[in-house]
């Protein structure tokens, strides 16, 4: 059974992302944003498998990664809105967040070679730690991915590559831009690969616990491929998918499954998450703009 802590975090990320789209629709945010609606369970499932001493490299769709790492919705929203209390003084926005051993970037493929370098440092200086990097299926079109995998395999680096395979690269279906399979590409470098289609947090942890332990203990890279679905648009309103594809994504969503299994718990925790996000949004909107942040003039 899913713990209340995990369920609350899943619901917090869901309501946070929905609130961002609402704020954009009201013209209250500058720049852009990419939500992880439908993919929230991935960082939640990975959370206890990682430690604060591990490096986490996120991507453009990384709010859930950050919230699972720090549980800091106020700081993240302030960053996106360019308001006082922002994680990066309002200059990172939605996509470029740096905090301790967490870094997100909107540049596809950039984080993987950086993560390989961090993994090399950990192998030499902090054995038992690992670098975790989140990429999508579309990122496999970048040459830097293969250079990094080659080095990770040759140097036996403690690198965990998390592939959030949601079936579409912005507006291009995966089958039109990715030849072969991700498993086959990992195998070409002699790197272990594991694919999961589950959205159940506990099941995923049971699948990955030993495998992630090997990354730490044996200092060898691993590619974990999540067969997931993106509920929302690529960014804010740019969804070109057919209705049948969107419907399939909704059918795969974790939320109705957990709600059917635990209706009373979900209702209670969902109400709490909604109230928290609403309160944070009101508070952050009233804060002064950070000097130099977008929208401050």
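Q: What amino acid sequence fits the structure above?
A:
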């Amino acid at each position: 059974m899913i713990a209340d802590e995990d369920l609350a975090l899943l619901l917090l990320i869901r309501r946070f992302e929905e609130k961002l789209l609402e704020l954009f629709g009201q013209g209250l945010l500058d720049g852009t944003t990419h939500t992880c609606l439908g993919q929230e369970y991935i960082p939640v499932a990975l959370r206890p498998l990682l430690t604060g001493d591990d490096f986490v490299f996120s991507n453009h769709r990384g709010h859930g990664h950050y919230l699972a790492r720090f549980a800091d919705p106020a700081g993240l929203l302030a960053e996106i809105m360019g308001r006082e209390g922002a994680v990066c003084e309002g200059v990172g926005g939605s996509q470029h967040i740096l905090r301790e051993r967490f870094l997100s970037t909107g540049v596809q493929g950039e984080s993987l070679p950086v993560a390989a370098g961090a993994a090399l440092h950990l192998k030499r200086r902090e054995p038992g730690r690992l670098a975790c990097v989140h990429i999508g299926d579309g990122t496999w079109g970048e040459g830097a991915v293969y250079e990094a995998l080659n080095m990770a395999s040759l140097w036996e680096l403690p690198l965990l590559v998390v592939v959030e395979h949601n079936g579409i690269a912005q507006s291009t279906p995966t089958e039109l831009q990715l030849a072969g399979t991700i498993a086959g590409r990992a195998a070409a470098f002699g790197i272990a690969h594991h694919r999961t289609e589950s959205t159940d947090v506990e099941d995923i942890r049971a699948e990955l616990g030993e495998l992630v332990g090997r990354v730490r203990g044996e200092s060898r890279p691993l590619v974990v491929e999540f067969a997931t679905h993106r509920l929302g648009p690529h960014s804010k309103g740019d969804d070109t998918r057919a209705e049948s594809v969107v419907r399939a994504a909704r059918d795969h969503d974790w939320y109705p499954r957990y709600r059917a299994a635990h209706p009373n718990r979900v209702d209670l925790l969902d109400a709490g998450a909604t109230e928290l996000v609403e309160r944070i949004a009101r508070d952050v909107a009233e804060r002064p703009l950070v000097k130099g942040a977008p929208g401050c003039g």
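Q: And what stands out in the fold?
A: The chain has one domain: 4-285.
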